Amino acid sequence: MTTFMDRPVPDELWELFQRVVPPSPTRPQGGGRRRADDRLILAAIIFVATTSCTWRQLAPVFGASWQTVHRRFAEWSAARVWAKLCRILLDDLGSRGELNWSRSRQPSLGAARAGRPADPLTPWPAA
């Protein structure tokens, strides 16, 4: 049985992620602790995003404290890594024809009951 930690971040996702993540800062003075592995940090962020786990509940199996994971999440968010990754994924899926942007034109029963236009692109009638 394969567990989450056996393959925390698929190779394909990791390759895409490396294209958008900013380079790791280097410490000019040297010394200190070794930087936590970006791939394990990404796995921890994905774990938090896809479960009901909070930052503080992260298990040590990810190789970093919850504070480190959260700090890296904040750094990557400020660098717009998630938006860039999303754009790459959408472009890749679109270029392979696996993404369909067409909208369904079937009316919504809930919208009809509420007196709203069934098609979300149709403007509300003037009052």
From TrEMBL:
Annotated ranges, domain Insertion element IS402-like: 10-85
A Pfam entry, by short name: DUF4096
Stretches assigned to coiled coil: none
Ranges where the record places region Disordered: 98-127
PANTHER family assigned to the protein according to its UniProt record, in alphabetical order: BLL5188 PROTEIN (PTHR46637:SF1), TIS1421-TRANSPOSASE PROTEIN A (PTHR46637)
Protein name: Insertion element IS402-like domain-containing protein
